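Pinned message: reference record for Prefoldin subunit 3
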Amino acid sequence: MSSSSPSGSGGDDLSERRGIPAAKFIQDVETYLSQSGFDSNSALAFHQERLQQYKVVEMKLLAQQRDLQAKIPDIEKCLEVVATLEARKGTGESLLADFEVSEGIYSRACIEDTDSVCLWLGANVMLEYSCEEATALLKNNLENAKASLEVLVADLQFLRDQVTVTQVTIARIYNYDVHQRRVKQVTPTAIAAADA
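Predicted structure (tokens):
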């Protein structure tokens, strides 16, 4: 959000949460406009631009949230598979599994006793780990994903609060501008009526 902030907008100093600037509630629009040097149209344009920036950030955060919400069940499934493999280790039982080779293409495998598993790390990289290492890695990834999701949810709530404050500010500035225009229209009419 690279817009320059108008000075003297009233309220607390501008703060932020993880790069998202906080919106200030404007108590007195007239004071805000006189201190910032904006006219009503410029102030409306500034706050509408800020609102659009918030909306763009919200779309990005929602996409990240969807990705994390899809990633967490995948990690949990992987943990279950590794736990199943570890539980069957040494029993002599083989495990029959269907796995996805490509989108919509599956193959069946018979998994004998195994001491290691291969995990996709991303970017077309797969590494072989012992079952214990894989469990530790997956648990760590699961904890990190859940923590990231919590932070993301808090960021989204903060962002929604800023959107609400900005929308209220836009409405207050707009209403102030309408009121000022009506006062200017009434004043010449009242003077003409008084002269008659």
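Pinned by admin. Summary line: Strands lie at 16-17, 20-21, 95-102, 105-111, 116-122, 125-130.
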